[in-house]
Structures are given as C-alpha cells and as structure tokens.
Specification:
Number of strands: 0
Structural class: mainly alpha
Shape: globular
Distance between the termini: 83 Å
C-alpha cells in the first residue's frame, strides 16, 4: 500500500514523491517566451491607434496641401480669363469674372441679402467665392490623389476638365444658377474650358512641388 502525501498526491513506487502541482507549470523559458509574445500583442494593440492617427494626419495634410494648391492655381486661371478677353474685339468682350459674379449675385438674391450689402462688399465676396471654390476643388483632389509621381500634366488637364464639366455642365445648371453650355455662347464655353485647364495644371504642379519637398 502506497503512502499518501498530505496534499493528497500519491508517492511513486520508488519512494520519490510525485511531481507537485508547481513542478508541472511552465518552465521559466516558456514563461519568458509567453511574456514576450504577450508584450508583442500588447504593443501591436497599442500601435493601432497610432497608425490610425498617422493616417488621419496624412489625410489632413493632403487636404490642406490640395486646398493651398487649388487656391494658388485660381490666380493664373483668372489671369488666363482676362488675357483671353483682352484679345477679343471690344464689342465681344465680357466681364472676366462674369460667371462667378452671376452665380454669387443669384446666391445673394436667393438668400435675400443682396440689398443688405454694399457694392464693394459684393465685389469682395465674389472674389472670395471664386478663390474659395478653387481651394475646395483642390482639397478634394488632394484627398483623392497622393504622391508627387501621380501628379502630371495629363492628370492636371483631366482635373480641370472634370471640374468644368461637373460645375458648368453639372450642378450649376441643375440648380438653376447658370444655363447649360449648349444654351450659352460656344466661344465663352471655350474660354472657361481653357481657364479650367490652366487651373487644373496649376493645381497639380503646385501639389507636386509641395509633396516633393515633403518627401525630401
């Protein structure tokens, strides 16, 4: 008959005590490995928010750079409009900011504020809206396309044509702020397309420069 240990574990036949519960636990090396793995799991878990934050900061940077590029490119776009008008016969010339002015005044009238602002304030708001629209379109492009290698003259031309199409042949006539291009003078539509090409290429080149400097 075998002896019984006080803790209820029977001793082996050779007189040696059976392994205790403590001796059956993992070895120090195993515990060390598990501890390392646990630390790695903890670290990877903590890295999640950090990676997310980096992505958010990167996206925010793209939007800000796109906004700055689109706003800056509105200047040569406006110069192009004035230059084209200057080359036309005087009787065929139109105000270079005719469309932005017309859109702004119709918005003011719809909001019932046109009688509450002075002529100078109206002109300032027209220019502000003109550059703000360019900045907004640039911000959308900046958020959608990242990396200087993706910015080329072709993508700039596509960007300019897309903005013209979505604006002057899209939502502006859809909400009644302008007529569709088919119902407007063809030469004026050609001027607007040319100016939007200048804006698109300018936006892309400005973004390319900013992102190239950021990657250096």
């Amino acid at each position: 008959m075998t002896a019984t240990e006080p803790d209820g574990v029977e001793s082996e036949g050779n007189g040696q005590a059976a392994p205790s519960a403590y001796s059956l636990t993992a070895s120090p090396q195993t515990e060390a490995r598990e501890g390392t793995a646990g630390g790695e799991r903890s670290s990877s878990g903590a890295a999640g928010p950090a990676v997310t934050g980096e992505v958010e900061r990167s996206l925010a940077g793209q939007i800000v750079r796109g906004m700055a590029a689109g706003c800056a490119a509105t200047a040569p776009m406006t110069v192009a409009l004035y230059a084209v008008e200057a080359m036309l016969p005087r009787e065929d010339r139109l105000p270079s900011l005719k469309e932005p002015a017309l859109i702004s005044r119709r918005v003011f009238a719809a909001a019932d504020v046109r009688d509450d602002i002075t002529r100078d304030q109206e002109e300032a708001l027209i220019w502000l809206g003109h550059f703000a629209y360019g900045a907004t379109c640039g911000a959308i492009y900046g958020a959608a396309v990242d990396g200087p290698k993706r910015h080329s003259l072709v993508s700039g031309a596509v960007l300019g044509l897309t903005v013209w199409g979505l604006s002057y042949a899209g939502w502006l006539p859809a909400v009644g702020l302008l007529r569709f291009p088919t119902k407007r003078p063809a030469d004026r539509s050609a001027e607007l397309i040319l100016s939007h090409l200048v804006w698109g290429v300018g936006t892309v080149l400005a973004l390319k420069m900013m992102e190239s400097k950021r990657s250096d």
